[in-house]
Amino acid sequence: MPQATTAPPSATSGTVTTRFRLALLWILFSATNYGYGISELNALQPILTCHSRDSTITDLVLPIATGCIPLTESQFGLVTSLFTLGGLVSSFLISPVSKSLGWGRKTCITWSSIAGIAGGSVLGLSSGIGGLGMGRFFQGLGSGIGVVMVPIFLNEISPVALKGNIGVLNQFSIVLGIFVAQAIGASWLGSDGKYWRAVPLTSGLVSLLQLVATYSVGLESPGWLEGEGKAVVGSGTVARDRADEIRSMLWSAKEVQSWKEGRSSGGARTDEERQGLLAGDSEYEDTNSTANRSSERHQVGLMGLFKDPEVKPGAILIVLTQLGQQLSGINAVLYYSVGILGSILPALAGSIGILITVINIIMTFPPIYLIDEHRVGRKSLMVGSAIVMSVASALLGAGIVYGYKMISASCMILMVAGFSFGLGPIPFVILPELVPSRAVSTATSLGLTLNWTANFLVGSAFLPVKNMLASYDQNHTGGAVFYIFSLTNLITAIVVARMYRYNPE
C-alpha cells in the first residue's frame, strides 16, 4: 500500500468525485445532529423550567402554540441526560445488532436518521416531561449510531491519501452542530415561548433531509462489503466487484487504478486498512497471508478484542483514548462555562461562553492540515493537545481558587482550543485504524460506549464534586476540581506517547 499521507487541498479535487463529496455530506449529517443534540436545550432552560403556568387542554391539542413547560430544575436535568442514555444504549447495541441482521453502514446511517426524525418531532411537539424525555432519548439513539458509524464509514470510503483530512471532518461537524444549536437557541426562536419548538424541530428536519438523501446519494461502504458484507452478499468475488464499482463512483480513475495496482501487488489489503500501529507491537509481521485472509472472515466479538493478540493492543488504545477524550474535562467547560465564570465574571460569562463555541470551531481546522505525518502527525497532535489541556486545567483551577479572573477566562478558552486540535478529532480518526476490519465494529462500539459513559459521569458528577471541594479552598469556589482534569490529561499524554506509533502498511 502506498504510504498514507494526507493530501494538500489542491490535490483533493483530482482524487475524488462530486459523488464522493455528496456522500460525505450525507454521512456527516449524523455527526452534525449529534453536536446539535448536545447543546439544543441549553438556551431553552428558562422556558422549560417555567413554574407559573399549568398545562391546559390547549397544550395537549395544539402543543406547537404553547409557551413554557413547567419543569423543575431536576426534571430539566433528567430530560437533558436522557440524550446521553439513548446514545449509550445505541452505541453499545449497534455493533451486535448490525452483525446479526446483516446491516451495512448505509442501513445504520438510515436508522440514525429515522431515530433523529422521531426524536426531534416528539421533542418539538411535546408539552410534558414524558414526551420531552422520550424525544431526547430517541435523539440519543440516533446520535449513538452516528457516533459509532460515521468515523468507520469515513475511513472506509476515503482514498488512503485523504483519510486523515476526511476523518477530522467528523469532529468539525460535531462542533458545527453545537454552534448552530446555540445560535438558534440564542435567537428570537429560542427565547420566545411560542417559537422555541423550532429548535428541536430543526434537528428533525436535518434528519429528514439525510433520510431523503439516502435514496439519492447514499451508498454502501466498500470496506464493509469486502469485510463483514461478504456473508451478506454471498461471495467474496461479488463483494469485491461491488466494492470496486463503488470506489469508481467515489474516486478518480487514477486513484482507483492506483488502488487496484497496490492490491494486486500485495501492498494493499481491501478489508484491513490500518495505518496506526502500536509501539509495543512493531515487530509483528504478516507472515502467513493465507491464514490471515481466512481469519478476516470471522468477526471479532467483545471478549475476542482482548484475546486475539493482533487485536488486543489496538483495542486497549481505543478504550484509553476514548476515555481520555471525555475525562479531559471538555464537557465540564461546554456544559457549565457560564455557571463557572458567573461568580467571578458575571458581566462576561455569557460572551465567553459564545466565544468558547467559536474557538471550538476555528481550532478544528488546523488538524486537517497538521494531521499529515510529514507535518505534525496524529501522535504529536494528541500528546500536544493533552499537555496543553493539562496545563490549562491546572491554571484554570488556580485562577478560580485564588480569584484571578482573566487567567480563569483565558485558560478556559485555552482548554477548548487545546481539545479541538487534538483530543477532539484524532481519537475518532485513529479509531478504525488501530484494529483489523474484522474487529472495527466491536472495538468502536466498546470504545464509544465507554465514551458515552464517561460523558455522562463527567456531566452528572462535576457539580457535586465541585461543591464538595469548595469546602477545602479559601474562597469556597470548588475550582480545585480542575486539578483532577489536569491529572487525567497528563495521564492521557503519557499513554499516547508510549503506546501509539504511526506506521502505514
UniProtKB/TrEMBL annotation:
Residues 23-504 form the Major facilitator superfamily (MFS) profile domain. InterPro entries: GLUT, MFS_dom, MFS_sugar_transport-like, MFS_trans_sf, Sugar/inositol_transpt, Sugar_transporter_CS. It is a multi-pass membrane protein. One of its GO terms (molecular function) is hexose transmembrane transporter activity. It comes from the Eukaryota. Residues 261-275 have a biased composition (Basic and acidic residues). GO terms for cellular component: membrane. Gene3D superfamilies: MFS general substrate transporter like domains (1.20.1250.20). Residues 261-295 are annotated as: Disordered. It is found in: Membrane. It catalyses: myo-inositol(out) + H(+)(out) = myo-inositol(in) + H(+)(in). Keywords: Membrane, Transmembrane, Transmembrane helix, Transport. The chain crosses the membrane at residues 76-97, 109-131, 137-154, 166-189, 315-338, 344-369, 381-401, 407-431, 443-465, 480-500. Belongs to the major facilitator superfamily. Sugar transporter (TC 2.A.1.1) family. This is Related to VPS73 - protein involved in vacuolar protein sorting. It comes from Melanopsichium pennsylvanicum.
